[in-house]
Amino acid sequence: MAATIARMEDLNLHHIAHKQFERSVPFADELDGWLGIAQWLFEPDRIIEVTMPVMRDDGYVHMFRGYRVLHSTVRGPGKGGIRFHPEAGPDEVKALATWMSWKCALVDVPFGGAKGGVVCDPHQLSQREKERITRRLTTALGDTIGPFTDIPAPDLYTDSQTMAWIYDTYAMMHPGEATLPVVTGKPVALGGIGARQGATAQGALYATEHFLEIGGIAGLDRVDGATVVVQGFGNAGRHAARLFREAGAVVIGVSDSQGGVFDRSGLDVIAVERHKDDAGTVATYPDGERVERGAILEVPCDILIPAALENQITTSNAERIDARLIVEAANGPITPEADDILATKGVKVLPDILANAGGVVVSYFEWAQNIENQRWEDTDVLEKLRRRMRRATEVVATKRAAMVDGLDSYRSRWLDAAGNDRHIPVPDLRTAAQTVAIGRCRDAALQRGVWP
Ligand code: NAD
To answer: Which residue of 14, 192, 326, 430 pairs with 351 in a disulfide if CB–CB is 3.0 to 4.6 A?
Structure first.
């Protein structure tokens, strides 16, 4: 039965982003009288698809496809990562760009949302091939990216080296111009910020700590001593495992694309990191029990951190999730239907647009630092990040409480076609976070006006 339901679940990410948006619209004041504005806020501004001939190391030319979506510029230039993944596609990139708009608005950085993807299997590519794809993509995107138009960053299977190639290619195309801020997540030697690599996980930790401090989970008021499971051991997951461990959590399970490892008494995260560097996977780490890739999500724990891919918690496994809090370091790891199941089970979710916003916050610091030709201290970066993450967490928790209190009035304001109260579900933290973000985008849009 569960399998049948799972098959019926719509896993198209852009449809999911739309469903989530629709859940927030009734709570976003003034959008009810401005339905055209709601559509404007949701639809992407620009979708670019490029086809790129790239020479493989064996001398054959292979055609690669790339996408860049600029979702919204009402609050500033586009900002968002570029991923290399076999399943990258227009709908996925559109959804990720949309979530970037909400994320930037929620943590109040002056950017809109964007995202890019190249359809490729990074495991099958040499470093030289990745470089050629990256440089070709940068050339193909031309002036649609730029320090004040659309600013890429790393994402799935791209990193600071990828950003260095983008910067270098773009700089060659714009001699004599100050082009460092065209990308963020660069190496420190190229104007990057040392703390950027761990920033997504650091932000997730700050948000989690504050959420627990303000009573978000009854009976769990600190990270110290909490049991934690992390799915994914790349930029977001690996740093999350280490930083949560340093904050006193007991990391009992981690995984990557090849499988997971579990130890109820706590893993030695530093030793797991060393093993990942040597063996290329955490799955074969010897001091723990081996766990199947999907089963890691079902390990009982206090805090579950999905930090790998989208659509990991769906109707097919949501019932079996045994965590008190889920912190979405990944983008879109939970489907709307799974959100509903988790809410019924009493599992709280710190949504992606809040939990993983640390990356874009520090990207913003890098961009500002590059424009000013300054070099900020890492301690300043972390303190500014901490303040922003705590503020955003508080805003979301307060907004949710107000939305729950006013639920009856929202329900009676929103009537269905027959004039009856429409049943609006009790809002979760995701709906609250999106409502704040969409409200800020709406304000910017209305203050700027519709031109011409
Ligand atoms: P990454 O390429 O550095 O790491 C991805 C990790 O996920 C790898 O360890 C990989 O082995 C693992 N993985 C892949 N498929 C898996 C599966 N089926 N099960 C378990 N593990 C699997 O990517 P990243 O930058 O860490 O991004 C991970 C997620 O975090 C993505 O959703 C990304 O959009 C999101 N995110 C990243 C950043 C950032 O700063 N890097 C910022 C915000 C959000």
So the answer is: 430
